[in-house]
Design a protein that fits this description.
single chain; binds iron/sulfur cluster; binds magnesium ion; binds adenosine-5'-triphosphate; 14 strands; 8-stranded mixed beta sheet; 30% helix
């Protein structure tokens, strides 16, 4: 463990932090490719640390396969973890299993990308929202019915719509049902895994506004996963950029969008013409060549080196630590410098 990692871990005791994840690792064993071949391991998540404060949103962004969903599922203890620590408030989630873990489940819920496939087509909307209450034996049956009606109203549906089946709703309404179901047990944390990616552009803003209102009213914390910087800029308080199982940059929203530092972050931002608070500065796109390396045998040095436009030989020679260049702004790149106390990105998007 480096000094920087140790400093990250000491942050676990920070008041106001709801979810605290330290050095999370999720490695999936794979079948051997041949009789004498060594066993292979997919390092889907490889030393990820972050905090989600109560009532705030941390966005995790990155390309497909970077490990966003695996990170979220592991942080909720919905999939096995290889190593690391997870705390939810005062509870050491990593140490729990069985009934003790089940009791914690109502504190955290998840909303998935595809609002249709996450609903059972033969189950009425009301029953879908009620299911977690029945499963966790929350209140009396009459209280549960009352709660379901309340939840329908809270997400902008009418209580009479409980009788309908999923196919009788639009995509946006189905996502509202999923959100109502996630809220049924009064969670403190909701993981939103690409919650608007499958929706029409016109509907996206409505669902994002709904999530923002529910956050304000209920004090929810969100772990918001997306590959879309433009969506994230509107919803997050803090952002973490993932590349090949690791966080390469982590910062408060303003610091990040005002001065993205990691070459991968800069490349991701350059793909979004309207990023930067609607200033519509159209940065020209930085084209990333090639695919990310395999998570089975990730490079020992900077994992982005093979695609980085400003790589130097030293970058690939040794692991790059995630370091705090100015308070709160962490980056995993040896070429980020300070000039007069201001961090300088080694790669800047060409202006259009
Ligand atoms: N159960 C599993 N067994 C083996 N490998 C897995 C498993 N789940 C995920 N992976 C691998 O782990 C890596 C990270 O996957 P993950 O689904 O977390 O990425 P993601 O960032 O959520 O991508 P997307 O944007 O496509 O949803 C990928 O290489 C994936 O193939
Ligand atoms: S460490 Fe080197 S290769 Fe990696 S992102 Fe920074 S400049 Fe690019
Ligand atoms: Mg995913």
């Amino acid at each position: 463990m480096t000094m920087q990692d140790a400093r990250q871990i000491s942050a676990a005791a920070t008041p106001g932090v709801l979810l605290s994840v330290r050095d999370l690792q999720v490695h999936f064993p794979r079948a051997r490719s041949g009789w004498f071949a060594p066993p292979e391991v997919v390092k889907a998540v490889d030393g990820v640390s972050f905090d989600v404060p109560r009532g705030k949103t941390l966005a995790i962004v990155g390309e497909s396969g970077s490990g966003k969903t695996t990170t979220a599922l592991a942080a909720m203890r919905l999939s096995p973890i290889t190593g690391g620590q997870i705390r939810l408030g005062d509870t050491d989630l990593g140490a729990l299993d069985g009934e003790a873990l089940r009791l914690q489940r109502r504190r955290m819920q998840i909303v998935f990308q595809d609002p249709y496939s996450s609903l059972n087509p033969r189950e009425r909307a009301g029953a879908a929202v009620r299911a977690p209450l029945d499963l966790m034996s929350v209140g009396t049956p009459a209280q549960r019915s009352e709660r379901v009606a309340e939840l329908f109203t809270a997400v902008g549906l009418r209580p009479e719509q409980q009788r309908l089946f999923p196919h009788q709703f639009s995509g946006g309404q189905r996502q509202r049902i999923n959100i109502a179901r996630a809220l049924a047990t009064n969670p403190e944390l909701v993981v939103c895994d690409e919650p608007v990616s499958a929706l029409d552009i016109a509907i996206r803003a409505q669902i994002l506004n709904l999530l923002a209102r529910l956050q304000r009213e209920l004090g929810l914390a969100y772990l918001f996963i997306s590959h879309d910087m433009a969506v994230v800029e509107h919803i997050c308080d803090d952002i973490a950029v993932m590349y090949l199982g690791q966080i390469v940059e982590r910062a408060p929203r303003r610091a990040f969008f005002g001065n993205p530092l990691h070459p991968y972050s800069v490349a991701l931002m350059s793909a979004v013409p309207t990023v930067h608070g609607g200033r519509r500065h159209a940065a020209r796109r930085i084209k990333l060549t090639g695919d990310p390396p395999s998570p089975i045998d990730p490079p020992i040095g900077c994992r982005f080196a093979a695609r980085c436009p400003v790589a130097e030989p030293a970058c690939a020679a040794e692991p790059q630590p995630l370091r705090e260049v100015v308070p709160g702004h962490w980056v995993r790149c040896r070429r980020v410098d300070l000039a007069d106390g201001v961090p300088q990105a080694p790669l800047r998007a060409p202006q259009a």
